[in-house]
Design brief:
Elements lengths: L4 H31 L8 H14 L6 H19 L5 H5 L2 H9 L12 H23 L13 H21 L10 H22 L12 H21 L8
Length: 245
């Protein structure tokens, strides 16, 4: 069935009208989005930057909440930066560059002082693993069952001392920084730490068995395995810089 030229013209007009309506809807949507950055204190150039950034971040796999949090933080930083004459381009580069940094943020520089407690906890777990595995395994190679084995309280105390001390020793010998104390005094500190640590080993053997029991070797090995999982979790989720391993 042939369509007359008048009908074709009518269909074309309808198609153009639909396309125009779609374009108007898109323009209206853009104006609504753009208005989010108007009248909030941003300059025209910075508002335009945030509008384009909003469009680009919407194309990423970030959740709506992550996108909103990122935009909110940027607006706050931009409002503060404007007071000293900064622009969004000065602060973050192009929109594409900013998107890439949001999706692939730079790793935080290691700081032993700032990360002391994660490092200390990691080393506590690490030495706990070493001691429990060592005493659990050596049990099978000794003729007398409990002789020479450390009780669980002694192991915990020794691990705590080691965990607290290793990151501190790392700070004392950290290269490329200005140390508060001279080298000879830092060496004395390190010697004192090892003396204290050895003292804990000695006195751990004097702790009454009722509060420092020697556990079954299989229990030691099982506790060591739990410690491995814990150390792996800490290593994966925190920036460990003062660890023994």
């Amino acid at each position: 069935m042939r369509v007359s030229s008048s009908e074709e013209t009518k269909q074309e007009r309808n198609a153009r009208k639909r396309n125009a309506n779609v374009q108007q809807d898109r323009d209206r949507a853009k104006k609504i989005v753009h208005s989010q950055f108007d009248n909030i204190g941003l300059t025209k150039r910075n508002a335009e930057y945030m509008f384009r950034f909003n469009q680009e971040i919407a194309k990423t796999k970030l959740t709506p909440q992550q996108q909103a949090d990122t935009i909110h933080q940027m607006v706050e930083e931009l409002l503060a930066g404007q007071k000293s004459g900064k622009t969004a381009r000065n602060m973050w580069g192009t929109v594409d560059q900013r998107i890439q940094r949001v999706l692939n943020p730079p790793k935080r520089k290691p700081d032993i002082k700032r990360d002391y407690w994660p490092n200390a906890f990691y080393n506590m777990l690490l030495f706990f693993v070493i001691f429990t595995f060592m005493y659990g395994i050596t049990f099978f190679f000794t003729k007398s069952s409990a002789r020479g084995m450390m009780g669980i309280t002694g192991i915990v105390l020794s691990s705590i001392i080691a965990g607290l001390g290793i990151p501190a020793l790392t700070m004392l010998i950290q290269p490329g920084v200005k140390h508060k104390y001279p080298l000879w005094l830092r060496i004395i500190f390190m010697v004192l730490f090892f003396v204290v640590w050895m003292g804990v080993f000695f006195f751990a053997g004097l702790i009454p068995a009722v509060i420092n029991p020697v556990l079954n070797p299989y229990v030691y090995i099982a506790l060591g395995a739990v410690g491995v999982v814990g150390a792996f979790f800490v290593k994966r989720n925190f920036q460990i810089t003062g660890g023994l391993f």
